[in-house]
Design a protein that fits this description.
The protein is mainly α. Helices cover 70% and strands 5% of the residues. The chain contains 10 helices and 4 strands. It has helices at residues 4-14, 21-27, 35-63, 67-95, 101-113, 127-134, 141-152, 160-163, 179-219, 221-228; strands spanning 114-115, 122-123, 164-167, 172-175. The strands form 2 sheets. Strands 1-2 form a two-stranded parallel sheet. It is elongated and about 80 Å long.
């Protein structure tokens, strides 16, 4: 398996610089007249840019023994990974007839444009709801996220356990930064796992699902037009 720096370098050279709508229409004019396909592609590429940025900074913090910041950023990377997994699951659900296409179209809007502070007109989807869906494909992702969240929040592991030690017999508490000694050896496996799953979802799962979605839309275009217009 490539090292983390090697993967980050490969990813850097693979980041998509632009999407041209004209090329999509030339590829499949029926499928790409629907905005959901563009939003799906836009999601895929922005997620790639984001996770590359997050994991680059995660690893830099790790190398400089900033364990807490590294774990918080890794937590954000897991969230980003979760969105891609969820997108791929939703595309598959449309193609297999288990999700309404127009509902899926609305979903892509919320995933791409959603906000919590009402800065957009779309309500963001709860990341916990997304990760619960991901758990069906990748057992353990919720557990990883929960563990990282304990460091991110000022709960026991992110507060008392990370910065204090108590001698209960002598009633003495000593304070220091124990985060690196506690968590440094766990950071690299977490980053590698995140990279491995993202690479699979981005390079293997998504292209296959997207091509199937294009074919499905082209084959069902009349039905989609009728249902869109309420007929």
């Amino acid at each position: 398996m490539p090292t983390i720096p090697e993967t980050l370098t490969t990813w850097q050279s693979s980041l998509c610089p632009r999407i041209e709508v004209g090329s999509l229409l030339a590829r499949n004019p029926v499928a790409h007249k629907w905005k959901a396909t563009f939003r799906s592609l836009e999601l895929r590429e922005t997620l790639f840019w984001r996770i590359h940025d997050l994991l680059t900074q995660t690893y830099e913090l790790h190398l400089n023994n900033h364990a807490l910041g590294a774990r918080i950023l890794l937590r954000s990377a897991v969230e980003t990974l979760g969105i891609l997994i969820y997108l791929n699951q939703s595309i598959e659900a449309v193609v297999t007839g288990n999700q309404n296409f127009h509902d899926f179209s609305d979903l892509t809007s919320r995933l791409l444009l959603g906000s919590r502070d009402k800065s957009t007109n779309y309500q963001a989807i709860s990341i916990l709801s997304v990760l619960e869906k991901c758990e069906k494909t990748y057992t353990g992702i919720m557990g990883l996220y929960a563990t990282l969240s304990e460091s991110a929040h000022p709960n026991f592991y992110g507060l008392c356990f990370g910065y204090s030690k108590t001698d209960h017999e002598n009633y003495v508490s000593e304070y220091s930064n124990y985060m690196t000694s506690l968590y440094a050896d766990k950071l690299v496996p977490g980053v590698e796992l995140c990279m491995l799953v993202f690479d699979h979802e981005y390079n293997t799962v998504w292209p296959k699902q997207f091509e199937q979605l294009e074919v499905w839309i082209a084959n069902n275009d009349e039905m989609l037009e009728a249902t869109k217009n309420g007929v």
